[in-house]
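User: Here's a structure from my thesis project, written as structure tokens. My advisor, Dr. K., wants to see whether a designed sequence matches the one we expressed. Can you design one independently, without my sequence as a hint?
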């Protein structure tokens, strides 16, 4: 070995014993340990969101802890493979969507009597002659036969047509003449009272 060249083993020892390198090494170790504990906490919370079981989150955290700070990445891979696929919020959302879809199908697509498929704008079921809708006489839109009045224009189906139109017409168009007639009738009554 030539005289001028430094010993590689001595360089390594100097590097290891350098206080800055030692400090950096300690910081890295602390960081990895924090990462390990943080991952265990993440697994705990993640499992909490995916199951109602109160014990499984502790198992998930224990799995991460068990694999030590050196190997916990393998525990994370294992956990990602075996954890429940959906969170409980996703399961709830999916069940809501399925429920509303089912309700939609049952409400709009099937005859309430014979369960035959019908269109949403049919007046009667062609299979069993059940009345599905009625045409509102005021606005000509399709009204549900169970509605007591039209949801679109407020036409009251329970009353007879004449009784339904007469008050509406008097309030809407004949109100001024009606009130004027009342005034003249009152004046006539007053005149009758003052003139014996
Ligand atoms: Zn039917
Ligand atoms: Zn109407």
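Assistant: Designed independently from the structure alone:
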């Amino acid at each position: 070995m030539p005289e001028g060249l430094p010993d590689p083993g001595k360089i390594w020892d100097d590097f290891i014993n350098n206080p800055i390198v030692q400090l950096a090494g300690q910081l890295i170790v602390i960081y990895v340990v924090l990462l390990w504990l943080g991952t265990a906490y993440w697994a705990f919370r993640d499992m909490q969101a995916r199951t109602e079981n109160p014990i499984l989150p502790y198992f998930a955290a224990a799995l991460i802890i068990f694999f030590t700070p050196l190997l916990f990445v393998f525990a994370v891979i294992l956990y990602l493979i075996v954890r429940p696929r959906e969170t409980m919020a996703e399961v709830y959302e999916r069940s809501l969507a399925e429920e509303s879809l089912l309700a939609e199908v049952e409400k709009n697509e099937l005859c309430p009597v014979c369960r035959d498929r019908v269109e949403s704008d049919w007046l009667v079921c062609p299979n069993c002659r059940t009345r599905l809708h009625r045409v509102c006489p005021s606005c000509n839109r399709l009204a549900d036969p169970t509605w007591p009045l039209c949801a679109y224009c407020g036409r009251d189906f329970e009353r007879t047509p004449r009784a339904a139109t007469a008050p509406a017409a008097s309030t809407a168009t004949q109100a001024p003449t009606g009130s004027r007639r009342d005034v003249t009738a009152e004046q006539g009554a007053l005149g009758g009272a003052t003139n014996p």
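When you compare it with your expressed construct, this may help: The CA atoms of residues 70 and 116 lie 65 Å apart.
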